[in-house]
Amino acid sequence: MSASRPQRIALIGLGTIGISMAALHLSRDSNIVDVFDTRPDFEDYIFKMLPNYMGQIPSLSSKQNPDARPSTSLVTSLVSSGRLRIHSTLESACASATIIQEQGPENVDWKQSIWAQVEAVAPPSAHLWTSTSGIAASTQQLQMRNKTRLLVVHPFNPPNIMPLLEIVPARGTSPERVEFAREYFSISGSKHRPVVIRKEIPGFVGNRLAFALLREACYLVKEDVVDAKDLDTILMASLGPRWAGNGVFESYQQGGGEGGIRAFLEKLGETMQNVWDGQGRVNVLGDEGTEWKEKVIAQVDEAYGTLSAEQIQEKEARLKDFVRIQTKKYTPEGPEV
Amino acid sequence: MSASRPQRIALIGLGTIGISMAALHLSRDSNIVDVFDTRPDFEDYIFKMLPNYMGQIPSLSSKQNPDARPSTSLVTSLVSSGRLRIHSTLESACASATIIQEQGPENVDWKQSIWAQVEAVAPPSAHLWTSTSGIAASTQQLQMRNKTRLLVVHPFNPPNIMPLLEIVPARGTSPERVEFAREYFSISGSKHRPVVIRKEIPGFVGNRLAFALLREACYLVKEDVVDAKDLDTILMASLGPRWAGNGVFESYQQGGGEGGIRAFLEKLGETMQNVWDGQGRVNVLGDEGTEWKEKVIAQVDEAYGTLSAEQIQEKEARLKDFVRIQTKKYTPEGPEV
């Protein structure tokens, strides 16, 4: 079945990511979304939380104000129309699904157990997606009989705004199921940008890049080259806006002028190798190389404290603007309205 | 003398960075800018190139359209009013300077030689700044008698848009001269954000962070985890916009919820350490670990080719928008106009 046709999606685990995913799937007017979670107040929780996310994902087929925040009446109408179905058993949630997606705990035993249970109750054709940020599909599916169905669909926080979805199949995942997931998130009108990762690797690609930069950042704070807040200022005043508009390879292709990235690597090669040879090798676990942690935590706490709801809202508004500008067209006469 | 008072700036070396710096200094209506370069067509070159940059840096004291591109008549008027002075000798360019800034070749011998010459002809009070991206002030000043005057002022490309200036003193640079540079670029109305780096280190901070991420990016392409263009998409669809609005430490402080970055490091610690233990150790110089280069260069060439002038203009317009949004205020009712 084509991924652009209406789907029936069963969501397992409705934490922050799960609720946001529900909003995303419901933004397509013909989808039906079945939700299941073991929390005792599950129904009340859905009525309370879902409206906060629905407003942030505009319907793909209507021109409603994307900043309006719908009330619980929207959830009532979704439930009464049958587009949103709240379940008290895994079996009933999965029974008619074309897609089953889990956002449960990041725990190997839990993931392996849930997929074995899902396999026993779900239609054999259903696509199986995990939102994990760290546990590969090949590990999660160890207790399953059919090892061609499961793949990672890793969103970035907050998934209702961040365009990226990393699609990471196991070695045995069928190519048709990979393509189905990619097609589903590429649907016309979607703001999301799915990318297929070719090999399973810890942290996938986005977090590997982020953690590589973070490691050097922690090292520079540890060595008193710069404090945490000034390092953040440096990132925001240079690499952040650069990488919001250009990838790292594209930036250096441009930076090398007519010679492209080859010229750039030649011109900057000596400084680059010096930096690479001297990179920080701090650790986050274990006894050695972890002395930076208390210093970094103290500096970050002092710089930012706990962000208020208003601060987070302001940051989300700004993030939406950044993402909007990424697809804006500029004419030679000036920006389009 | 206070950095907020009118300055007389001698610029040595008028390549892309130098021209852009001239535009930046001239945007303050009371500054006088003296320029010196050894290229034979220097005067024609200034008349031809400077207008391309002047329009992009709005005057701090007038409300001209920042997207308008002034013509050579602006350069004529700057020259006839004495605000811009084109010199054929280093001595005459430096004679009355309060600030002397070089953007010459990234070559140790050239830098050491030019500062020894400058010291012989410049007023003893003049501030000495180098725009180098790789040669520390302590190395550049080896042939100078007074080692308290020179410091690095490292801009990011394109410096007329990018807010960051890394101010990197040598160990012996006087604190007053560091503070003067910081104050100069922090002047009210300036879009620039100077940050003082506390220790000399190869690549300073911005390029160390960029190269740490680049190294992992090259490794992931080498290992066929992802191709260069998909890696760029991943960066633009997640970390770029995140780091345009939040620093890396602030992002993880927020990501940890009420527990802040401490909770984040605990929750993600295992994945993070796995990523750190498996980080790519590719090299850019030497014989070992450089096999990625031709693969990356070929993929980047195929993905982007040579960027056209129109593409670069569009990218600069977008970059300006990103930087503008960084300082925009959002009200609870929606974005301010």
Automatic annotation (TrEMBL), chains A, B:
GO biological process: fatty acid metabolic process
Quaternary structure annotation from Swiss-Prot or TrEMBL: Homodimer.
Coiled-coil blocks: none
Site (Important for catalytic activity): residue numbering on this chain: H154
Signal peptide: 1-22
Highest taxon in the source lineage: Eukaryota
Domain (3-hydroxyacyl-CoA dehydrogenase C-terminal): residue spans on this chain: 203-272
Residues in 3-hydroxyacyl-CoA dehydrogenase NAD binding domain copies: 9-199
GO molecular function, one term: L-gulonate 3-dehydrogenase activity
Pfam families reported for this sequence: 3HCDH, 3HCDH_N
The name this protein goes by in its record: L-gulonate 3-dehydrogenase
Lineage of the organism: Eukaryota, Fungi, Dikarya, Ascomycota, Pezizomycotina
This protein's record includes keyword Lipoprotein: no
GO CC, alphabetical: cytoplasm
InterPro entries per the UniProt record, alphabetical: 3-OHacyl-CoA_DH, 3-OHacyl-CoA_DH_NAD-bd, 3HC_DH_C, 6-PGluconate_DH-like_C_sf, 6PGD_dom2, NAD(P)-bd_dom_sf
